[in-house]
Amino acid sequence: MDTKNIKVCVGLSGGVDSSVAALLLKRAGYDVFGLFMQNWHDTTGTLHGDCEWEEDRFVAEMVARKIGIPFYFVDLSKEYRQRVVDYMFNEYSKGRTPNPDVLCNREIKFDAFMKCAMRLGADYVATGHYCRKDEIAAPDGKPVYRIFSGSDPNKDQSYFLCQLTQSQLERAMFPIGDLEKPEVRRLAREAELPSADKKDSQGICFVGKVDLPTFLQQQLKPREGDIVEVYDAFYTDNVQYKFIVSTLSSLLRDDFAGEVPVLTDYISETKTSAAGSGDGSPRESEFSREKLAALADNDWLRLSQPVEYGDIRFETETYRSGKKHIKKTRYKDNPYGKIIGKHDGAQFYTIGQRRGLNAGGHKDSVFVIETDIASNIIYVGEGHRHRGLSRSCLRVAPEDVHWIREDIPMAVGDIRRYRVRIRYRQPLQSAFLIMRTNGLYVLFDAPQRGITPGQFAVWYDGDEMVGSGVISR
């Protein structure tokens, strides 16, 4: 390939990954230039309290000078606020948990930024993402662009690119996708790049590490509410929970002798002994494909719905206390739960969260299992294996299903086996994908911890990421 006539814009962020991406492209003979984008001005809620972008821009410019490529700057803060941050605020206000990094890549890096790069004459846009891309021909001869996990299993960032389209991938390049992080650091040090030892960025894309409640309070107002701990006895009598267990049991293969698993086998945020975390190939499921196909659409919808806790009511009673028999009020004991504290707003919490609850007096950690925005109540459970943290089925609304591989979409009635993750760095989990008229359903072989509305479910065929969708309620 004659690379000298191919102009590539590298999104220089000031970090080591994008710096080495630019270095490798320059060495390969491409006509390279760097473009730094500023996406955020406000420091409200940021833990550093200053404008990190100024230092990042300074480092990026020094990197460009060291490599010997032109350097440009673009302010996309208006687009970022409108298309990423406002979306974040809106989702949190509804009790959903968005992923701003996925949105930033779809709406900014590979849209607004890419369009700016093309105006500057670029043929391609390169980033420092740890992922890989290739091109194959469809049966009609048209090119199909595929995206794969990065070679470094500890740094794979394909999840964050799960909403990209074929037209975006056509113009994208990922020069470090075949490298591991230590090798990237080594190349940067050998080339004496100013970013060689710069720490990886953390927090919200282009905003930085933030105190999330403080950040969200720019638009979402605090409102005190109750924290309710849910006891295990609640699930014994709950109609929805019993429906889920009985339905999952009815979907098991006839030759399977065990009981349907209902609790996740959770170890840590990056480790699990659940199905699909092994060599990469989906194992044989305990569920019957024929029974999945026979289940009615409405039953799939109900199976995907989480248990709700609004039926847990607390009645008060009066009693007399102390020598003077002062009249006081207290809540009656409830076998299903107990009010254990107060919070500043249900919209500031997310499923699976344990920080910021201030719920003492427990042997194990306490986690959020549900947020009721309308009633402003947070429901919590004690321990990783609390029943409220585990779910086996999720739904993606029809309008939220996105196929990176536009040539292999699922039709209504299709059932496929894929590996799926519901958050970044989660080990891939074996699952059935079932397409119905009212949505795409993901039924995991093993229950998952903390399925969160607003996050993205992403499915893979081997190492290839083929589609994604926003998790519904």
CATH class of the largest domain: Alpha Beta
Name the helicity range. 10-25%
Globular, elongated, flat, extended or rod-shaped: what is the shape? Answer: globular
With strands numbered from the N-terminus, the spatial order across the biggest sheet is 16-19-18-17-20-21
What is the strand tally?
21
- What's the tally of helices? 11
Brief synopsis:
The protein has 473 residues and is of the alpha+beta class.
Topology summary:
Elements: E1 7-11, H1 16-27, E2 31-38, H2 52-67, E3 71-75, H3 77-93, H4 100-119, E4 124-126, E5 131-137, E6 143-149, H5 166-170, E7 172-173, H6 181-190, H7 212-216, E8 225-230, H8 233-237, H9 239-250, E9 266-268, E10 271-272, H10 289-294, H11 297-303, E11 316-321, E12 326-331, E13 337-343, E14 366-372, E15 377-382, E16 390-403, E17 415-421, E18 429-436, E19 439-449, E20 456-461, E21 464-471
Parallel strand pairs: 1-2, 1-4, 2-3, 4-7, 8-15
Antiparallel strand pairs: 5-6, 6-21, 8-13, 9-10, 11-12, 14-15, 16-19, 16-21, 17-18, 17-20, 18-19, 20-21
